[in-house]
Amino acid sequence: MSYQVKEVQTKPFEGQKPGTSGLRKRVKIFQQEHYTENFVQSIFDAVDLKGKTIVIGGDGRYFSPETVQTILKIGSANGVAKFIIGKDGILSTPAASNIIRKYKADGGILLTASHNPGGPNADFGIKYNVSNGGPAPENVTNKIFEKTKSISSYKVIELPPIDLSKKGFFTYGPSNVEIIDSVSDYLQLLESIFDFPLIKNFLQSHADSFKVLFDGMHGVTGPYGRAIFVDALGLPESSVQNAQPLPDFGGGHPDPNLTYAHELVERVEKEGIHFGAASDGDGDRNMIYGKGAFVTPSDSVAIIADWAAEAIPYFKKGGVKGLARSMPTSAQIDKVAKKKGLECHVVPTGWKFFGNLMDAGRLSICGEESFGTGSDHIREKDGVWAIVAWLNILAYANQQSPNKLVGIKELLEKHYAVYGRSFFSRYDYEEVSSSGAQQLVDGINEHIAKGSLTSTSHESKSTGQKFTVAGVSNFDYTDPIDGSVSRNQGQIITFDDGSRVVFRLSGTGSQGATVRMYVERYVPAEAGPAELNKDTQEGLKGLIEVALQLSKLPEFLGRDKPTVIT
């Protein structure tokens, strides 16, 4: 195949700064002439991939097929030796991490804006992963950003597009291209981790008393869900819904929480389904929900950590090396770590912080309150992994309890009876005024500087509960592996009863500002079932009122209610 490398003149675009999860903007911004090409070339300018192998995949959102071809043109012109591409450009983020690691690729480019909506008027994203399969660390993303600010040209090889629907080996200019099945390697990985025969036996023997529903939310995980739940575990086709990946996610918002996964929640309650689960656009998040039983992400990772070494073959064999959570996530997993004598790390939000600990052999299981849960099997959070982990644990728990069915609710109650319960909720205020969000942050920083909130008492009007502020601080983190320091990762107000409220500006949206407020109140096991099993919002009502009053959030943001409550 003859080819010619062409150099195209360009100018920098402002604001091509990748966040913790890559560069995310509206589709129309990426569609500007040279915009996508500039960013892709900047990756190749920042990371030497000449003669190397890279993986390409994504969640199938609008503008993905064209961008795969753009990466081929520019990557080939920059000397990439081999591209491994998921069929139809589809690879869930966890599956891509696995492919990078399994085939010893040098990196990967993922086309996803994760849980953000898709379509011509919605969001797109480009994310670079490094050779351990995890998101690029800050020193790499900073380098990419610096290159975007000075770029003057990009290289391309103009050849006919490759047919992404055909698996096999091809050439593109000087590069080799392998188009692979998007699902099979990932399914093999899960089958090596979990006890599929135990899960299958439990589900088949309780076909009437334990029904399962998986919702792919028209994101990337539909085909993975069908391969696991229908093909491997023998469940009926009706146990999987919204399983066709669509460029606009069927017009929905592919974020697995109680607000956006309402179709799953409604069907679970209406049909009395015992185990419901959903995953997001790119497959790295999850929600577990059974009839009358919602599992918070903080509780989910704690329960997986509690049962892992006993129930899951991967951890039975290799042991649990350590646990971790992001700072805003509740301290429920800390209680498990303490009882089991394990190290428990608290890191900033961003999966890359877990990767360093995993690579150093100090971390096995971790999670974020934003519905991200995972382990050291890959270097990304993994929604489908978490869902199968729950099924494995439930199958094992029922093997130990032959006469009484153990469901999600029973597992939660058993956990609280041993460890107590961290009532936890997150309030998201999306696309708020950036200036209002900054005023909120500045106001809390002023309290930190002056110490003006410390030792002040505040009473909830509706519950009569009193909360006394123990301290206010910014969360800074020094990585124990490489010594890097991350500052101002969230503002924390702690109270003398151990409760806390965290405020964070999020960088995962594509426009405006998103403010997240995290509220946590711990109730010890001795409080008894009536107190431990209260509804979350009831258990947190007084603290939420005090948090809003203290921070003046409604005043600064001009919002009486959050966009999403989880």
Can I get a quick summary?
The protein has 19 helices and 27 strands.
* Major β-sheet strand ordering: 2-6-5-3-4-9-8
Distance between the termini: 54 Å
Strand content: 15-25%
As a whole number of angstroms, the C-alpha radius of gyration is 24 Å
| Oligomerization status of the protein chains | single chain
Choose one word for the global shape: globular
Structural class: alpha/beta
Helix run count: 19
- Low-confidence regions: none
Rounded mean pLDDT score: 96
Largest sheet, in brief, is: 7 strands, mixed
Count the beta strands: 27
Helix content: 25-40%
Features:
566 residues, 19 helices, single chain, 24% strand, 7-stranded antiparallel sheet, 27 strands, 7-stranded mixed sheet, alpha/beta
